[in-house]
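fyi for ur records
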Amino acid sequence: MANVSVYNMEGKEVGTIELNDAVFGVEVNEHLVHMAVVQNLANKRQGTQKAKTRSEVSGGGRKPWRQKGTGHARQGSTRSPQWKGGGVVFAPVPRNYSFKMNKQEKALAIKSALTSRVQEGKIFVVDDLAIDEIKTKKIVSVLKGLNVDKAFIVTRDVNNNVVKSANNIPGVKTGFVTVSEDAVSSSINVYDILKYNNLVITKAAVEAIEEVYA
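which gave:
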């Protein structure tokens, strides 16, 4: 099992934590990691593009001139694609780009992403993020103490003070993991874990993730 340092909010090392190899020490499955990233980006696509085909544009109900004898090429409608104001050939229509991954694939992709952060030394465990007020400077101070810039901050349960304090910091995003007797709720995903340079996670969140994915 990997041992990583635990820091306080000032960035000083206050201990170590042993990470569960079933979550933070798996064999990295690059295929599933890639699939999870593509899924995340695909699910965000709106797919609302639309243009009208010749059957949808108005007008063009009659033949513009007779078939033969005019010297013009034969035309059946003024709304054919070659006409100004005509329809679009193979016009784009609204579509859904999203696709699904099964639970086992998602879980292994997340564990692979977490493992890669550990292997790269880009995971920082904080004993607690106790912020009693919404103050951007406090999150900036924590990140500065850890010597990180762009970071994905993960807490156990939603911490509104942390979320709102980090909202205005470029290159910083927050996430959470909630575990209860009735349900598991999480906002972490492979894309966010890998997108940001560092993963800053509380000790309680580590325990929650191990409880969910181990």
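The first strand starts at residue 2 and ends at 7. thats all i got for now
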